[in-house]
Amino acid sequence: MRARFALAHIAMVAMVAMLRAPRAYALCARPMERSEVLNDNATTPADGGLVVATSFGIADQATAPLTPEWTFKVGATDTKPVLKTLAPGLVVFILPPGATAAELNDGAATRGHVSRATTKAAPVAAPKVKAIKHTMVTAMRGNTNITTVTIIDGVPDDVIAMVVLDAKTGTARSFGTASPGSPTVNVYVQGRCSALPNNTTITKAGDRVVLRWVDKLGRLSPATKAIKVAKG
Predict the structure, then answer these.
(1) What is the pTM of this model?
(2) In which region does residue 153 sit, left (phi positive, over 0), alpha (psi from -120 to 50) or beta (all else)?
(3) Which residues contact 61 (CB under 8 A, 6 or more apart)?
């Protein structure tokens, strides 16, 4: 009897120890910056160019981060590019004046090709937005914040990204890449282990924003009217 009681007591102590033990969380791997050309082989007008998006990941570092070493190669000549910032982490490399074609080089490899358009192209219309909602997903290992835009009739075919801007100041807060035909665009996503480009601003419920497309030629659309962000 005593032996049986002792075994039961040991089992109970072990169970209590397990319940009281602090929960172990996995450490986050260090996010690595990387940049990608969204519209390689674009044929652009004077106000367009190659669109480069910066993101962060923990694997597949085949795409190097954006640095001052990125240049346009026009023929055999390296030319310092003119950059137009559309949003934190989203820039356009404008084709140099007088050049009909160029290669974008990151100092080690060719990253994209662009040529000069000989005809005009009309800009895309402002986004037709059904709703924009911010959702915070709570989990044991940390929260995830997602701001999603729902598009009437889906993302147009000639669009590659969406930019969200503060309705009062016009300052760009963040961007999201867009897939033609998709009903939604995530313009802000951050989880416990993720990283975002410098100066990115969260867009949450109650904020008033405007939205603009980035077309496949590297140009911004007109803006929507001010929209209040809902809680998802």
Answers:
(1) 0.85
(2) left
(3) 32, 34
How far apart are the C-alpha atoms of 55 and 64, rounded to whole Å?
11
| Sequence letter at residue 68 | P
Distances (CA, A) of 58 to 37, 80, 195: 19, 30, 10
Cα(121)–Cα(103) distance, rounded to whole angstroms? Answer: 22
pLDDT digit of tens for each residue in the chain (232 aa)?
Answer: 444 434 343 343 333 333 333 343 457 777 889 999 999 999 999 889 999 999 987 765 557 889 989 999 999 999 988 999 999 999 999 998 889 999 999 999 999 999 999 998 998 999 999 999 999 987 776 789 999 999 999 999 999 999 999 999 999 999 999 999 999 999 999 988 889 999 999 999 999 999 999 999 999 999 999 999 999 8
